[in-house]
Amino acid sequence: MAEAADFQGTSPSPARRWLRRTGAVLAGTPLLAGFLQLPAGSPAEAATPAAPRAASADGSVAVSVDSLTPGAPSEGDTVTVSGTVTNKGKKAVTDASVGLRVGSLLDTRSSIDTAAKNSGDVDSPAGAEIDDKYTEKFSKLTPGVSQPYTISVPADELDLGQDGVYDLSVTLTGETSDQPWEQTLGVRHTFLPWQPDELDAKTKTTFMWPLVSTVHMTAETGSDEEQTPVFHDDELAAEISPGGRLDRMVALGKDLDVTWVIDPDLLASVEAMTTRYEIPGENTDDQDVVGGHQEVAKRWLTEVQKAVADKEVVALPFGDPDLASLAHHGTSVTGSLRHLKEATDVAARTVESILHVVPSTDYAWPVEGAVDPSIIKVATSAGADKVIVRGDTFEGGRDLTYTPTAPRPIGGGTTAVVADARLSTVFDGDMTRASASTQAVQRFLAQSLTLALQTDRPRSVVVAPQRTPSAAQAQTMAEAIGALQDSTWSQPQDLTAAAKSKPDPAAGTDVPPASAYPKSLRKQELPRSAFEQIARTQDKLDRFKVILSDQSRVVTPFGRALNRGMAVSWRGRPAEAAIYRSGVETYLDTLSSQVRLIEKSETKLSGRSATIPVTVQNNLVQGVEHLVLRLTSTNPTRLQIDGDAYEEQPVAVSGGHSQSVKFTTNANANGRATVVAQLYTQDGRPYGQPVTFDVKVTEITATVMLVIGGGVLLLVLAGFRMYTQRKRAAARQAEEREQDDASDEADAADKGAKNPAVSETRPTGESAPRTREDAPEQPSDPARDTAPESADPSGTGERVDR
Fold it and tell me: Which InterPro entries match (predicted)?
């Protein structure tokens, strides 16, 4: 009966553990029943069932494993497991006990997957329980209440034999009022890798550590000399601040042997934050909101520089363009591949200038490593000769019983670097719960060890996790990598070395067809209209930049904005992506419209020829040049421009100024003529909107001209007659003065003869002076300019000479 009680769920003694493991298959057979010599319908069997039974498949008690250390124990280590148990039922659980059970050896990767799916199933085999001295007991578990537990067991007590991965489970047994017998009410399966000795052929493991974010910068910049950048949100500041997602990625990655995979746009955006930046709709004078994170940005970039100093760095094309969307919808739009080439070219310069390391740009990384022939073609069109793909979307080979090495030559000098799907996806999901994080770490280690034990061939394995891990996911990845680096079966390797390793001749090299591309990923791709809008914006940019005196102020920010418009991060956010692209195009239209022709009203011409001014206004900060202004007459029979139907003149206008361009017109007839003014670039493409205005021509007739001519002739004759008359009067006056002088001299001579006294005092021939008042008034004398001065006071309003 004691043995029967052991198999009914009571804690086994050490003497019975061997019997429990070796006799599990025979536990329910007649042979075992005969050995126990129990009657089929005995009251003892009715009171105590033959095996622990669960209240339900999931168990009425939730068991979590929040910590398992060490994750991969060696001989002499002590395994410590801790977590919580929570009564989810409506009845209290009494005489509860939490213990460890070591199950069977999981010798295949698929068996680990199956165990992970059923990790909470109480009906799954749980193996024999460790000695009851390594259990924790609870007298009562109240419904809805959680209780912590911690169990520490020496590794030697776990009876681990063959190297490999074991199913380690934490079980809770107890009773309820409606089921008053000992039974398993909750379980949590996890994995315990056991490889105490160093493997001769260690697996070389490459872990990609991505520094990628969403799009934050716009195409807009300030009009100041520094071109103050404009961000559409301030979320990047939160990511790089202490405790933020990107801050944690850098802090955790710096101590790990990983390959850094970086989007240069992220670095450029953070560098832009090191000076003043603006956010539309915010108060730009508030330094706490706008431009208040310079020190945070500087600190983060410094930490990144330190972290990557001695590590391999792979630079993605600027903005991390969506290669699959480009291949499926963008290649039919002219110019789309040009943007990918530009994004690749600028990537290396950006990373090197900011991080002071020379990155590799030989890699393309499609979304989730899913490829088809068109994606491979696009990925390599910009110069990459290595494409990171994932094993679950790439053919594995000819019924291989092991996981082949990562590199696969796929033709044309291109290598597909196949990342292991199980290791790459194990960190997906919510890792904020300690139980989920611990389970992911143990599953990662279990898959890695099982892979290493598949064959004694040396292999290179690549892990490509999700592009933008959360802070919790990054923490979990770091724990897993740290445990793997300390393991006995794996050693770190950078991505370039993995890509150059010798390919496995038995591995498949066929690129999956387009029909095999996951439909779930196709639904998230950028549509063709997105690439058409990008191409339209690029065409506008090409027409705009040729007139600028400093093209870099516009070409650089808009070029990078167009790269961002194709980013992977827009997947699943079609509305936000459309708003961003439209914002870039609208802002470019706004800038282009700052160079324009001023509207004109109707112009009147009175005569056969006249000059018409047309004003060009430049409201940009920089000057514009290489423009031609053309003035065209729609009716050259009536009105000609410089003797022809149109005339062109070069235009160059300084920033913030206007310039008037004058055109000579010739009228041939009366009436109204329509004139069109249009700016053109030097290559003959119209620039901006034309200005149309009317010119009203009034033709002057021959009769009017004769009348005017006659009037002018009469004025000339009258003037000539007045001139001759004045000349004759002046001559007559001069003659009269000479006669008066002669007469005066004769009179003086007579008087001198009669009066000698007078003649003695005056020289001969000199007459006495005569005042104007004494002189006789002559008819030709001019009138006086002013009246004689008066000593009387002047009257009011009169002029006073001074």
Answer: DUF6049, Ig-like_fold, TonB_box_CS
For 292-305, the three-class secondary structure string (H helix, E strand, C coil) is CCHHHHHHHHHHHH
How far apart are the C-alpha atoms of 70 and 449, rounded to whole Å? Answer: 15
- d(CA 270, CA 273) in angstroms, rounded, equals 5
CA dist 153 and 102 (Å) reads 12
Annotate 60-94 with DSSP letters as a single string: SEEEEEEEEESSS--TT-EEEEEEEEEE-SSS-EE
For the chain, give the longest Cα–Cα distance. Answer: 200
In terms of phi and psi (left: phi > 0; alpha: psi -120 to 50; beta: otherwise), the region of 369 is left
Confidence of residue 542 (pLDDT cuts 50, 70, 90): very high
Three-class SS state of 710: helix
- Cα distance between residue 314 and residue 495, in whole Å: 9
Rounded Cα–Cα distance for residues 758 and 736 (Å): 28
Task: Decide if pLDDT at 685 tops 70.
Answer: yes
Q: Could you give the CA distance from residue 207 to residue 558 in angstroms, rounded to a whole number?
A: 34
In the 8-state DSSP scheme, what is residue 230? E
Cα–Cα distances (Å) from 334 to 168, 527, 533, 534, 757, in that order, read: 58, 15, 11, 10, 124
Least confident of 484-488, 524-528, 785-789: 785-789
Q: Is the pTM for the entire model greater than 0.85?
A: no
Q: What's CA 691's distance to the chain center, in Å?
A: 38
In this prediction, residue 643 has a pLDDT band, given cuts at 50, 70 and 90, of: confident
- Both tokens of 164, joined, read 């490999």
Closest CA to 664 of 687, 641, 696: 641
Q: Which residues contact 725 (CB under 8 A, 6 or more apart)?
A: none
b/e burial code for range 524-557 (CB count within 10 A of at least 16 → b): bbbeeebbbbbbebbebbebbbbbbeeeebbeeb
CB within 8 Å of 694: residues ≥ 6 apart: 602, 603, 672, 673, 674, 675
Task: Decide if 188 contacts 443 (C-beta within 8 A).
Answer: no
CB 448 within 8 A of CB 203: yes
**Backbone φ and ψ of 789, nearest 5°:** -70, 150
Q: What is the CA radius of gyration of the chain?
A: 50
Q: How far apart are CA 132 and CA 97, in angstroms?
A: 9
Distance CA 686, CA 632 (A): 14
Peptide bond into 70 cis (omega under 30): yes
Distance CA 150, CA 163 (A): 26
Pairing label, strands 203-211, 183-194: unpaired
Residue pair 320/264 in contact (Cβ under 8 Å)? The answer is: no
Report which DSSP code applies to 344: H
207 neighbors 259 (Cβ within 8 angstroms): yes
The pLDDT of residue 394 is 83
Q: Are strands 686-698 and 603-606 parallel, antiparallel or unpaired?
A: parallel
Of 165, 156, 161, nearest to 76 by C-alpha is 156
10 φ/ψ angles, rounded to the nearest 5 degrees:
-75, 165
**Contact in structure between 560 and 267 (CB atoms under 8 Å):** no
With beta carbons less than 8 A apart as the criterion, state whether 560 and 318 touch: yes
List beta partners, residue 261: 210, 314
Tokens representing residue 575 in the block: 């509305």
Average pLDDT over residues 622-648: 92
539: left (phi over 0), alpha (psi -120 to 50) or beta: alpha
If DSSP states are collapsed to H, E and C, what string results for 397-457? Answer: ECCCCCCCCCEEEEECCEEEEEECHHHHHCCCCCCCCHHHHHHHHHHHHHHHHHHHCCCCC
